[in-house]
């Protein structure tokens, strides 16, 4: 039998759902589970996935939050049957290594995106290299981000980046409010690419780097690559699978 654990966000709706599910089903601790059921919104799903980076465990989310793009519909009935029939999607996260002005390096992981953002009223100046080749000598902008396919419908989409099919094994490199060059709209890169952002005039135009929700300030260099050794296993109902929702987003009015 599948061993199920429940993890819930702090919201009232998620805590109510946790109580209902615990009354209906025999649960185990998360450390002993084959499947973790995450209750909340996409933030709770991302947090749960981060906690499973080095474990072979599947995650089935149920929406008790606001957005819930990564989540299934919340229902109490037939949960073991839903899990058994679910489709599985494998996601490889991004690894970010950010170096600050003092030379300190910080490593963080991102499931959705790594973004580099100006900290002050002045625009950032960023040089972009791909696989150690400088591709954009200088971009003046509010920032730039690298998104996974799973994260391409989040912040990336809101700044007019492309929606990526999950099986395409590519990343989106998307500028945020670029001032110069004005017509550059970003790039689609192979997933194994190594991306480096060098911050120009960092003392005058300070920049922060954010891997999902982990922020590092006053960075001078940010290096990003996909960590193919970490596989995150998401489960979705067959009639509500992630590939279909990504496809639907591309035809949304």
Outline:
With 253 residues, this protein is of the alpha+beta class.
CATH superfamily of the largest domain: Probable inorganic polyphosphate/atp-NAD kinase, domain 2
Instruction: Give the fraction of residues assigned to helices.
Output: 10-25%
Order of strands across the main sheet: 6-5-16-13-8-9
For the record, the CATH architecture of the largest domain stands as Sandwich
Provide an overview of this structure.
This protein is α+β, with helices and mostly antiparallel strands and 253 residues long. The protein has two domains: 109 residues, Rossmann fold (3-Layer(aba) Sandwich), CATH 3.40.50.10330; 133 residues, Sandwich (Tumour Suppressor Smad4). The protein has five helices and 17 strands. A six-stranded antiparallel sheet has the order 6-5-16-13-8-9, with no helix packed on it. The protein has a six-stranded antiparallel sheet with strand order 12-11-10-7-14-15, with no helix packed on it. A hairpin with a 2-residue loop joins strand 8 and strand 9. The termini are far apart.
List keywords for this structure.
17 strands; Tumour Suppressor Smad4; Rossmann fold; six-stranded antiparallel beta sheet; 2 domains; 253 residues
Secondary structure blueprint with pairings:
Blueprint: E1 4-8, H1 12-24, E2 35-40, H2 42-50, E3 58-63, H3 79-85, E4 87-91, E5 94-100, E6 105-110, E7 113-118, E8 124-130, E9 133-141, E10 143-147, H4 155-158, E11 170-176, E12 187-190, E13 195-200, E14 207-211, E15 214-216, E16 219-226, E17 232-236, H5 242-249
């Amino acid at each position: 039998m599948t061993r199920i654990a429940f993890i819930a966000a702090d919201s009232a709706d998620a805590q109510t759902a946790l109580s209902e599910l615990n009354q209906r089903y025999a649960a185990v601790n998360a450390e002993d589970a084959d499947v973790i059921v995450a209750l909340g919104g996409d933030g709770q799903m991302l947090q749960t996935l981060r906690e499973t980076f080095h474990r072979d465990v599947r995650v089935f989310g149920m929406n008790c939050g606001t957005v819930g793009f990564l989540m299934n519909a919340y229902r109490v009935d037939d949960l073991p049957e839903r899990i058994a029939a679910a489709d599985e999607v494998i996601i490889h996260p991004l690894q970010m290594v950010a170096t600050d002005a003092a030379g300190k390096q910080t490593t963080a992981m991102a499931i959705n995106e790594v973004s580099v953002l100006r900290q002050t009223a002045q625009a950032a100046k960023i040089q972009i290299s791909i696989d150690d080749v400088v591709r954009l000598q200088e971009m003046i902008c509010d920032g730039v981000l690298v998104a996974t396919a799973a994260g391409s419908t989040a912040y990336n989409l809101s700044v007019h980046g492309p929606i990526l099919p999950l099986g395409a094994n590519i990343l989106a490199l998307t500028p945020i409010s670029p001032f110069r060059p004005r017509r550059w709209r970003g790039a689609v890169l192979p997933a194994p690419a190594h991306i480096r952002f060098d911050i120009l005039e960092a003392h005058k135009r300070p920049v922060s780097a954010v891997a999902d929700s982990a922020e590092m300030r006053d960075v001078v260099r940010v290096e990003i690559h996909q960590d193919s050794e970490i596989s995150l296993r998401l489960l979705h109902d067959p009639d509500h699978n992630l590939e279909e929702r990504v496809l639907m987003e591309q035809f949304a009015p």
